[in-house]
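Weekly sync, protein design subgroup
Attendees: M.S., D.O., the rotation student, P.L. (late)

Item 1: inverse folding check
M.S. brought a backbone from last month's batch and wanted to see whether the design step gives back something sensible before we order anything. D.O. pointed out we never logged the input encoding, so this time it goes straight into the notes. Structure tokens as presented (162 positions):
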């Protein structure tokens, strides 16, 4: 009887260890992220899926199911491709769709830790990118957004005077 219990305990420990070190399915690793990011229709579909505001594709369901766990454990079960893809998508949304990011962050990363981590790593890239005219991420540098916003106010004031 002791051998049976010892074997059962050993099996349970092994099973738990195996589950903790496994990775998420790589079934959807071939999804073209650039195509999704360049299409408002596709990106809106994924954002709406994650926010429970629309239907989910099969890969959207998988993402939605794994996202809380991936954020909780810093994507430790992600493959390298998944980790790179997740960073690419989240960085794009932070930079180009801040309203969507705020909603996603409220639901999945309410402490804001991912954005803080990203912005810390982004600063040095933007400083070197401004010398070269483009960033390493391949997306346009929006460092002058504040200036654009100020100039917009100046144009608005001039237009009102006329």
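Designed sequence read out in the meeting:
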């Amino acid at each position: 009887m002791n051998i049976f219990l010892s074997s059962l305990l050993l099996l349970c420990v092994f099973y738990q260890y195996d589950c903790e070190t496994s990775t998420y399915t790589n079934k959807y690793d071939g999804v073209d992220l650039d195509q999704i990011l360049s299409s408002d229709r596709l990106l809106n579909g994924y954002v709406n899926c994650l926010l429970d505001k629309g239907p989910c594709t099969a890969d959207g369901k998988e993402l939605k199911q794994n996202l809380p766990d991936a954020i909780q454990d810093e994507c430790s079960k992600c493959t390298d491709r998944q980790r790179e893809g997740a960073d690419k998508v989240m960085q794009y949304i932070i930079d180009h769709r801040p309203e969507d990011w705020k909603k996603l962050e409220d639901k999945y990363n309410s402490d804001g830790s991912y954005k803080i981590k990203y912005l810390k790593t982004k600063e040095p890239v933007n400083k070197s990118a401004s010398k070269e005219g483009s960033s390493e991420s391949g997306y346009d540098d929006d460092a002058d957004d504040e200036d654009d916003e100020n100039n917009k106010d100046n144009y608005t004031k001039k237009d009102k005077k006329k």
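Discussion: The chain has eight helices and no strands. The mean pLDDT is 74.
Action: P.L. to compare against the previous round before Friday.
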